[in-house]
Amino acid sequence: MDLVFDILTGICLILGCLMSLGAALGIVRFPDVLSRLHPGAKPQVFGLFLLLAGIGFAARSWALVPALVLAWTLQILAVPVSSHMVGRSGFRNRHFTASALTVNELADLVEQMNREEEQEEAPAEATDEPREVDADAAGLGNDTQAKPESDLEAERD
C-alpha cells in the first residue's frame, strides 16, 4: 500500500511541476497579454492541484486535507478575477496584437472611453469675456412663461 501512495505522490508531483513549468514557458513565450492569459491561469491552477494532491498523498494524513482544499479553493477563486483584470488592463492599454483577434467586441467602447478621457484632460480655455448662459438649458427659466392651453386645463383638474 505504501508503494501505491509513493507512486501516486511521484506522478502527481512530476505532472504538477510539468504543468507549472508549461505555464511559465507559455507566459514567457507568448507575444502579448491576451495570449498569455491562458497559460497563466489554466495550467497553473491544474498544476497546483496536482502538487497539492501529491503533498496529500505524501503526508498520508486526513488532517492536512482541509488546508489543501482551502489553498486550492482560494486559488480557483482568485485566478479568474486576476486574469480578467490583467486582460482588461492589457486590452485597454493596447498591449495586444490586434491582428490575432478574430472578433473585437470592445474596440468601440475603448475608443469612446479614450475620447472621454482626452476631453477631461484637455484644459478649459480661459477667457475674460462673460459666457452667455441659456436659461432654459440651465433650468433657470422663469415659471411665468405662457403655457399651452392643454397644460392649463390639466392644472385646473
Number of helices: 6
User: Order of SSEs, N→C?
Assistant: HHHHHH
The end-to-end distance, rounded to whole angstroms, is 92 Å
Q: Average pLDDT across residues? A: 80
Uncertain stretches: 137-147
Number of strands: 0
Rg over CA atoms: 31 Å
β-sheet strand percentage: under 5%
Note the main sheet.
none
**What's the overall geometry?**
elongated
Helix content: over 70%
Which class of secondary structure composition applies to the elements?
mainly alpha
Write the layout of secondary structure elements.
Elements: H1 2-29, H2 33-59, H3 65-92, H4 107-121, H5 135-138, H6 149-156
Overview of the structural elements:
The structure is a single chain. With about 160 residues, this protein is mainly alpha-helical. The protein is about 70% helix and about 0% strand. It has six helices and no strands. The longest helix has 28 residues. The N and C termini lie far apart (about 90 Å). About 5% of the residues have low confidence.
What labels describe this entry?
157 residues, mainly alpha, 6 helices, elongated
Quick summary of this structure?
The protein has helices at 2-29, 33-59, 65-92, 107-121, 135-138, 149-156. With 157 residues, the chain is mainly alpha-helical.
